[in-house]
Amino acid sequence: MGITIAIDCMGGDHGPNVTVPAALDFLSRNADARVILVGLEEKLRAILPAPVPERVAIRHASEVVAMDEPPALALRNKKDSSMRVAINLVKEGEADACISAGNTGALMAISRFVLKMLPGIDRPAICAVLPTVKGHVHVLDMGANVDCSPEHLLQFGIMGAMLVAAVDHREQPTVGILNIGEEDIKGNEVVKQAAELLRNSGLNFIGNVEGDGVYKGEAEVVVCDGFVGNVALKTSEGLAQMLSTFLRQEFGRNLFTKLVALLALPVLKGFKRRVDHRRYNGASLLGLKGIVVKSHGSADAYGFRHAIERAAEEARGQVLSRIADQVARHVSSSSQAAAVAAQESA
Amino acid sequence: MGITIAIDCMGGDHGPNVTVPAALDFLSRNADARVILVGLEEKLRAILPAPVPERVAIRHASEVVAMDEPPALALRNKKDSSMRVAINLVKEGEADACISAGNTGALMAISRFVLKMLPGIDRPAICAVLPTVKGHVHVLDMGANVDCSPEHLLQFGIMGAMLVAAVDHREQPTVGILNIGEEDIKGNEVVKQAAELLRNSGLNFIGNVEGDGVYKGEAEVVVCDGFVGNVALKTSEGLAQMLSTFLRQEFGRNLFTKLVALLALPVLKGFKRRVDHRRYNGASLLGLKGIVVKSHGSADAYGFRHAIERAAEEARGQVLSRIADQVARHVSSSSQAAAVAAQESA
């Protein structure tokens, strides 16, 4: 039994020129997979080979959500956008997952409206993958929620752990909470309370992870609120860009350094491959009754294909039932504990 | 008229072995400066040349604050610690500034207790300097305050701008507030309100700066709460370390790559110099009635010397009176505005 991925082909900075070739590349590497390409049929056919390849279906959608469109307007007015139609396909069971490189806010709003939340989860979270010295780390939330309660952070921990179980086949991944280590004041109240909840959650919780611990690979899942997560992610992007600029400038300084750069090319390529953000493209919108993956808007076909792979892995690993089961287990053990406490105090 | 810097020689991972040579190097480059070396006299004399060089005074202090000592205990029990004695020298006007590589929490607690806050400033903030594509940026707070009100963030903006005026001789530096740019939700309530206050503050406020904008040099001063600032700083440290590890590994892969590394050495050195964190060593504790600079605990003599230079620049640039004046101006214009508003509504 194969899997089917619905692809919003119109989203992102490059639209079908990137999404369609990425989809075909994905199919050539995944014999069990089918794709439904969603968008302006004419544009899609112009890029697709004729006849349309096997395992490819086209679903026409007459509208496109603009990258800068206010999410509330996209939700209200664009009922036939490629983004919404792709999400509908997941809702109706025609696709196992959907993916878009479009407007993040709109994707979040429409997904939440169409798919609804899983029972026991209050808010969706954006989970990204980052490289570490040891491999990679899943970090959430990356910007969906600016103010989080301890309970929200606990739910993020459960969702992140189940995502890692689904895609990395690690049944008890380590979970840490992002915190600061200043001697005087170890974190704010919300983080302290969330750590307490995580410690009693049955997850493999390892405690606080400081900023530098994220890239040291101290935990497989790192939980934080969306404000902090987004700042950490964007700061990292900015630093990496700056370092790459400086390195290029130093290698471009004169004829000798340019020659050295030529010799160093295989080394620099090897280095670049290890931190290539395109290989980590694809953030998961977790907590919904359906698998939704967000690609970076500027992704090329290589990066977008990686994001499709991610959606496929989540479907194969049954991330949704894993999250639902774990939340149910957690809720029942909490209410048992509450019942015991009530009995003892009676 | 020269300046005098009090140096806690016992703090940090390496103590006098780093702090004393750094102080002597600093003196050789700053003919107008004197230093007071504070610590266990015997240990200091063992490292100093005999006779003690000109412009060097020794002040014995019998105790040392341990790096992992709870700040409250250090404050209560170690009245004769090198850290406290150095701060006392500032309080008593014998030194224009003091510097320590010791326990951050203790330095903060003792500075606040001994020196007190400047009028109109509620809390001290830690301000660090980071390299950018365009030069450098001052970011505060880096971890002194985990929960900040909009008014605190406004005060950070004033202090940061005055610090840049003092040390970089830029009278109207640009000030931004660290925020996230997710389409749906632009920042939390505190940040929105703080932005409003900064917009009306008379500072050269340029609005939101996202994480990547910090290293792009979008503003000369970036304001954030201590939790976010600390995470951003530590995350950057972790990423830089990881990239450096990967680069070393790739250059160490085989005989050819090692040979290339040898050729590339001048390039890599030039690169390293541009992002050498030792050149940015020295975070300012702002808001106190005295200049206090915190060096990284693991700094070597080169790094510690840079932190002493920083303390000296702050003293020469009269950062304290600049902050005090600006706060006074701000308070008077706010109360004028309030008076006008009251009159209008009457």
CATH fold call of the largest domain in chain A: Isopropylmalate Dehydrogenase
CATH homolog superfamily of the largest domain in chain A: Isopropylmalate Dehydrogenase
Rounded mean pLDDT score of chain A: 92
CATH architecture of the largest domain in chain A: 3-Layer(aba) Sandwich
Subunit structure (chains A, B): Homodimer. Probably interacts with PlsY.
Subcellular location (chains A, B): Cytoplasm
EC number (chains A, B): 2.3.1.274
Family (chains A, B): Belongs to the PlsX family.
Overview in brief:
Chain A is of the alpha/beta class and 346 residues long. Chain A has 12 helices and 11 strands. Chain A is globular and about 70 Å long.
Give an overview of the whole structure.
The structure is a homodimer of 346-residue chains. By secondary structure, chain A is an alpha/beta fold. Chain A folds into 2 domains: 1-121 and 287-346, Isopropylmalate Dehydrogenase; 132-279, Isopropylmalate Dehydrogenase. Chain A has 12 helices and 11 strands. In chain A, strands 3-2-1-4-11-10-5-6-9-7-8 form an 11-stranded mixed β-sheet, with helices on both faces. In chain A, strand 5 (125-131) and strand 6 form a beta hairpin. In chain A, helix 1 (16-29) crosses helix 11 (301-316), helix 3 packs across helix 5 and helix 6 (150-168) crosses helix 7. Chain A is globular. At the A-B interface, helix 5, helix 8, helix 9 and helix 10 of A face helix 5, helix 8, helix 9 and helix 10 of B.
